[in-house]
């Protein structure tokens, strides 16, 4: 019916473009769990039926593929797409378990400086037209890789562990992200038993400094290590409390869950005795 | 059990140490990250001080330094000479103190130093405020210390 009035309607009105959310997962400090968070949040979001693409912006140190168990399926990477050596469709890897989840892998044998920042922004923009969520796994540091990873994102998730170094770096990154972005916090690798004994910063301690809306708290648990070993996101494990925590975070990202995040508590003697998983 | 004994003897848990160390380091991070804030602080500081003594704005230096329990602001402001008639600090905290009548808002160092040149002895000023007098008698370089307190409210870059 639209072709009846082709000249009257402006092109923009003809097909309303999709505008998915571009969220960068960042931290400043390395090793706090950005990649694991990206993989699990992406899997949890996709499991709700949303279309999700995970973009590994850690050029030179590709890891999102192996955490997701998709390393054998990667044929082309983000730089192949940016340099015109592969189409976006060629490079997007479909997840084994969740059909609405895609991965765009980083180049492993290239450097972060090889990525053109404005081209990367355009790539994220074009992904937003196709997916509900574009999650960008940011490399550690605040150099070119960071600048590339954040350029196309108007939302950010800060992953921070309860350590002085991680909190200080997170604070710095919040400053670098600027005013224009919505920034939220995930506290990762919390050990409730240590917090109770005054040997670890609590979630409140961390957020008294960062002062960000809290998306969720992930306890330091073997589940995450085991699932990473297998290349299966723990978020898809219905029996894991960590998986449930990731799914709750996904609910807060989509807006379906408006409850306050649960702070992991110490396991009881009974749970310790019977709750161990291999 | 050992922790209980430690706590009994008032030993600080390590998380409290972490909190305190973070607070201090972030305070100085934020201050050092905002050179324009330091600049405007320097301007304001000079403006207030030059109501009482004549200072050389070009050789003024303001820095922040972490000491064991606090972050200190160190202002090194060389005094050129005393003002002829310093504005008396009647009641600094209560009244906002009207702008100094004598020195113009925009500093005119050349003119001001010429005015005091014939009167080199600061003690000659009879109604010099007590607060300024020791500074005048002391060596030329005056070191002011001020504790920069409060939570880091801004994170400028």
The major sheet of chain A is characterized as: 8 strands, mixed
- Main β sheet profile of chain B: 4 strands, antiparallel
| End-to-end CA span of chain B | 46 Å
What is the alpha-carbon Rg of chain A in Å?
19 Å
Can you tell me the residue ranges of chain A where pLDDT is under 50 for at least 5 consecutive residues?
1-12
Structural class of chain B: alpha+beta
Distance between the termini of chain A: 59 Å
| Percent of residues in β-strands of chain B | 15-25%
Helix content of chain B: 25-40%
What does the oligomeric state look like here? heterodimer
Q: Biggest interface between protein chains, with counts per chain?
A: A-B, 18 and 18 residues
Give the neighbour order of strands across the main sheet of chain A: 3-4-2-5-1-6-7-8
The helix/strand class of chain A is: alpha/beta
> What does the radius of gyration of chain B come to?
21 Å
Strand tally of chain B is: 4
3D shape of chain A: globular
The helix fraction of chain A, in percent, is 25-40%
Mean pLDDT of chain B: 63
Question: What do you see in this structure?
Answer:
The complex is a heterodimer of chains A (278) and B (157). Chain A has 278 residues and is of the alpha/beta class. In chain A, helix 2 (34-47) crosses helix 12 and helix 6 (117-128) runs parallel beside helix 7 (144-151). Chain A is built from 13 helices and eight strands. Chain A starts with 10 loop residues before the first helix and ends with a helix. Chain A is 38% helix and 15% strand. Chain A has helices at 11-14, 34-47, 64-67, 78-82, 88-91, 117-128, 144-151, 164-177, 192-196, 203-210, 222-230, 241-254, 269-274, and strands at 21-26, 52-56, 93-94, 101-104, 133-137, 155-160, 182-190, 214-219. With 157 residues, chain B is of the alpha+beta class. Chain B starts with a helix and ends in a 10-residue tail after the last strand. The chains are: A alpha/beta (278), B alpha+beta (157). Chains A and B meet through helix 8 of A and helix 2 of B.
């Amino acid at each position: 019916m639209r072709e009846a009035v082709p000249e009257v309607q402006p092109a923009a009105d003809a097909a309303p473009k999709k505008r998915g959310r571009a969220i960068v997962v960042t931290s400043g400090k390395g090793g706090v769990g950005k990649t694991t968070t990206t993989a699990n949040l992406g899997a949890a979001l996709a499991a709700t039926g949303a279309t999700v693409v995970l973009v590994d912006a850690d050029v030179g140190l590709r890891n999102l593929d192996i955490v997701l168990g998709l390393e054998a399926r990667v044929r082309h990477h983000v730089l192949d797409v940016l340099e015109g050596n592969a189409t976006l469709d060629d490079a997007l890897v479909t997840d084994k378990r969740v059909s609405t989840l895609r991965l765009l892998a980083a180049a492993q044998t290239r450097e972060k400086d090889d990525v053109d920042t404005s081209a990367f922004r355009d790539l994220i923009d074009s992904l937003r037209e196709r997916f509900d969520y574009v999650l960008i796994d940011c490399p550690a540091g605040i150099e070119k890789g960071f600048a590339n990873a954040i350029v196309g994102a108007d939302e950010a998730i800060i992953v921070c562990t309860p350590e002085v170094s991680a909190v200080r770096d997170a604070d710095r990154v919040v400053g670098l992200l600027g005013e224009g972005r919505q920034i939220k916090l995930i506290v990762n690798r919390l050990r409730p038993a240590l917090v109770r004994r005054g040997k670890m910063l609590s979630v409140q301690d961390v957020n008294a400094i960062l002062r960000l809306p809290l998306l969720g708290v992930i306890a330091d648990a073997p589940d995450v290590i085991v699932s990473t070993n297998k290349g299966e996101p723990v978020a898809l494990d219905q029996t894991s409390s960590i998986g449930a925590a990731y799914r709750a975070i996904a609910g807060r990202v989509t807006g379906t869950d408006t409850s306050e995040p649960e702070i992991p508590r110490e396991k009881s003697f009974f749970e310790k005795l019977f709750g161990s998983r291999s | 059990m050992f922790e209980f004994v430690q706590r009994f003897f008032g030993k600080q848990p390590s998380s409290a140490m972490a909190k305190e160390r973070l607070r201090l380091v972030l305070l100085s991070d934020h201050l050092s990250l905002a050179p324009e804030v330091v600049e405007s602080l320097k301007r304001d500081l000079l403006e207030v001080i030059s109501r009482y003594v004549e200072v050389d704005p070009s050789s003024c230096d303001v820095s922040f330094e972490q000491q064991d329990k606090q972050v200190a602001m160190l202002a090194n402001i060389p005094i050129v000479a005393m003002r002829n008639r310093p504005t008396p600090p009647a009641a600094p905290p209560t009244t906002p103190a009207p702008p100094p009548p004598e020195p113009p808002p925009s500093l005119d160092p050349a003119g001001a130093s010429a005015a005091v040149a014939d009167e080199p002895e600061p003690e000659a000023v009879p109604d010099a405020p007590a607060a300024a007098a020791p500074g005048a008698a002391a060596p030329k370089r005056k070191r002011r210390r001020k504790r920069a307190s409060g939570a880091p409210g801004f994170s400028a870059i």
